[in-house]
Write a sequence for this structure.
């Protein structure tokens, strides 16, 4: 006995081959009759021509996640992390590399996330912590460190180490413990 999937595929190929030989009006009647016979309600307002044109029907090529799914996948813990995730989404899935705080707040609403108590304050903190960078005309953009952080989420350890690696070291603020060879020169 043959596999059910293969039998169904073979049957479909036979049906398509038979129907492609018929003119449009007859093909439409046959398909409607078959659908009625098997209890389906099928109305064909336009002729079926995908096979005749020799191409497959067009489908959307947008495979990007919804804002809600993206934020759910990344699991940000703080408002600043959520700002970084929303900025990443705007940059990568909405082709908006430069944005205002209002754009982030609107996307936050679209993602069905809790409303920011103060979106401007959260965006300013994200800027100060290095997740965002300033852009032109008072806009913001996702920083390289912020991008690495969001990519690493939901792995919190990898995300934190990505931010730590991206922060510039400040040499002037460390206390000197002992002398080095350079000090003697």
């Amino acid at each position: 006995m043959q596999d059910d999937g293969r039998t169904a595929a073979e049957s479909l190929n036979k049906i398509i081959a038979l129907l492609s030989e018929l003119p449009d009006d007859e093909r439409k009647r046959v398909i409607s009759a078959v659908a009625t016979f098997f209890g389906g309600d099928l109305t064909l307002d336009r002729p079926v021509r995908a096979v005749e044109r020799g191409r497959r029907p067009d489908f959307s090529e947008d495979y990007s996640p919804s804002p809600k799914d993206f934020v759910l996948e990344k699991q940000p813990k703080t408002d600043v992390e959520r700002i970084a995730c929303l900025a990443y989404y705007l940059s990568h899935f909405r082709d908006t590399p430069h944005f205002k705080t209002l754009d982030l707040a609107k996307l936050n609403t679209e993602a069905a996330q809790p409303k920011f108590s103060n979106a401007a304050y959260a965006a300013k903190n994200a800027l100060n912590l290095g997740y965002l960078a300033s852009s032109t005309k008072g806009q913001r953009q996702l920083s390289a460190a912020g991008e690495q952080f969001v990519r690493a989420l939901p792995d919190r350890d990898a995300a934190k180490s990505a931010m730590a690696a991206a922060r510039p070291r400040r040499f002037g603020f460390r206390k000197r413990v002992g002398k080095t060879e350079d000090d003697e020169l």
